[in-house]
C-alpha cells in the first residue's frame, strides 16, 4: 500500500512504524492525510502478525503541528463537522487497535497533533517535544477529541487551563503532569521506541491484547464490574496455547516460544 503523506514500515517482525510525512507543513493533518491514516490503521488491524504500532513525525521539528489550518479556513460549519468527525474516526480507530500503540513525539504536537498523540496508548517524548492545544488562538476549540482525552490524562483543571490559554508544555512538564510516560534525548527517540516495541513483541501476543483490552474497557466501568471483566479475560487466557507454553517455559527455566494462539 502506498501513501503520499505517510510512511508505513515494518522495521522488525511484528513492529509497525507509522510516520506522518508532510514535513513542509510540519506534518499537519489535512483531509487526504486523515484518509491515508484510516487506510494505514486498517492495514495494521488486518495483520494478525502485528504486535506493536509506533507513530512518529518526519523531520526534526514536528510530530504533527495540528489539523491543516490552510485547508480548514474556508470550511462551512457543515464541512467542519464532517472534518471533525473524520478526525475523530481516525483517533477512535487508532485507540481500537488490539495491539499497543506508542507515540514517539519528536517535536511540536499541537492541536490535532497533541490529539493524535493522546489517542495512542502512551507517549514517549523527545527532550525537544512541545505539546499544546492552541486552537483558541484560531477562534475554535479542539475538534479531534482534545478536550476529552486531555482531561482524562491530566485531570479537569489542568486540561481546562491548557485548552483555554493555549499554553504550550515542554517535555519535562509533560512528564510531570502525566501526559507522557518518558522523555529521552531526541537522537535516541526512535531506538527507545524500538526497544519497547521489541520487548512487547517478545511477550505472549494474546496476553498483551487481553491486557490492553482490560485496561481500556475497564476504565469505562465501575471498579467492581471492571474487576469482573478482568477475571473473565484472565480465565480466557487459560484456554490459549501461549498460557501453557509460558508457564511450562518458566518451570523448565527456558525462554518461552509463544505462537499467539
Ligand atoms: N496547518 C497548516 N500548515 C502549517 C501548520 C498547520 N497546523 N503548522 C505549520 N504549518 C506550516 C506553516 O504554514 C509553514 O508553511 P510555509 O513554509 O509554507 O509558510 C510551515 O508549516 C512551517 O511552519 P512555520 O514557518 O510556522 O514554523 P515555525 O517554526 O515558525 O513555527 C509552529 C512552528 C509554532 C508549530 C507554528 O507553525 C504554528 O503555530 N503552527 C500552527 C499550530 C496550531 O495552531 N495548531 C492547531 C491547529 S487547529 C487544530 O488542530 C484543530 C483540531 O483540533 C482538529
Write up what this structure looks like.
The structure is a single chain. The chain has 261 residues and is of the alpha/beta class. It folds into 2 domains: 6-201, Alpha-Beta Complex (2-enoyl-CoA Hydratase, Chain A, domain 1), CATH 3.90.226.10; 205-252, Lyase 2-enoyl-coa Hydratase, Chain  A, domain 2. Helix content is 48%, strand content 16%. It has 11 helices and 10 strands. It has helices at 31-45, 69-72, 77-96, 112-119, 146-154, 156-165, 171-176, 189-201, 205-218, 223-237, 241-251; strands at 6-12, 15-20, 52-57, 62-64, 101-105, 108-110, 122-126, 130-132, 169-170, 182-184. The protein has a 6-stranded mixed beta sheet, sandwiched between helices. A hairpin with a 2-residue loop joins β1 and β2. α1 runs parallel beside α3 (77-96) and α3 (77-96) packs parallel to α4 (112-119). Acetoacetyl-coenzyme A binds at residues 25-26, 28, 65-70, 87, 108, 110-112, 115, 134-135, 138, 142-144, 146.
What labels would you give this structure?
about 260 residues; 2 domains; binds acetoacetyl-coenzyme A
Number of helices: 11
Distance between the termini: 28 Å
Number of strands: 10
CATH topology of the largest domain: 2-enoyl-CoA Hydratase, Chain A, domain 1
Share of helix, binned: 40-55%
CATH class of the largest domain: Alpha Beta
Percent range for β-strand residues: 15-25%
Tell me the strand order in the biggest sheet: 1-2-3-5-7-10
Largest sheet: 6 strands, mixed
The overall average pLDDT, rounded, is 97
Output the radius of gyration.
19 Å
* Poorly predicted tracts of residues: none
Amino acid at each position: 500500500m502506498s501513501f503520499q503523506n505517510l510512511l508505513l514500515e515494518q522495521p522488525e517482525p511484528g513492529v509497525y512504524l507509522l510516520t506522518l510525512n508532510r514535513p513542509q507543513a510540519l506534518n499537519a493533518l489535512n483531509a487526504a492525510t486523515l484518509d491515508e491514516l484510516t487506510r494505514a490503521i486498517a492495514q495494521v488491524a488486518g495483520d494478525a502478525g502485528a504486535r506493536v504500532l509506533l507513530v512518529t513525525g518526519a523531520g526534526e521539528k514536528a510530530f504533527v503541528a495540528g489539523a491543516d489550518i490552510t485547508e480548514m479556513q474556508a470550511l462551512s460549519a457543515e464541512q467542519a463537522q464532517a472534518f471533525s468527525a473524520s478526525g475523530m474516526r481516525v483517533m477512535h480507530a487508532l485507540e481500537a487497535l488490539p495491539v499497543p500503540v506508542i507515540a514517539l513525539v519528536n517535536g511540536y504536537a499541537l492541536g490535532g497533533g497533541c490529539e493524535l498523540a493522546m489517542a495512542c496508548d502512551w507517549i514517549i517524548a523527545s527532550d525537544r517535544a512541545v505539546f499544546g492545544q492552541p486552537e483558541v488562538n484560531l477562534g475554535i476549540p479542539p475538534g479531534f477529541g482534545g478536550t476529552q482525552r486531555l482531561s482524562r490524562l491530566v485531570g479537569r483543571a489542568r486540561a481546562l487551563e491548557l485548552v483555554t490559554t493555549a499554553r504550550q508544555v515542554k517535555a519535562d512538564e509533560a512528564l510531570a503532569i502525566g501526559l507522557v510516560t518518558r522523555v529521552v534525548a531526541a537522537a535516541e527517540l526512535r531506538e527507545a521506541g524500538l526497544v519497547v516495541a521489541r520487548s512487547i513483541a517478545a511477550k505472549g501476543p494474546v496476553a498483551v491484547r487481553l491486557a490492553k483490552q482490560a485496561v481500556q474497557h475497564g476504565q469505562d466501568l465501575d471498579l467492581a464490574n471492571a474487576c469482573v471483566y478482568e477475571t473473565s479475560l484472565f480465565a480466557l487466557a487459560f484456554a490459549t496455547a501461549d498460557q501453557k507454553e509460558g508457564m511450562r517455559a518458566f518451570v523448565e527455566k527456558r525462554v518461552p516460544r509463544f505462537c499467539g494462539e
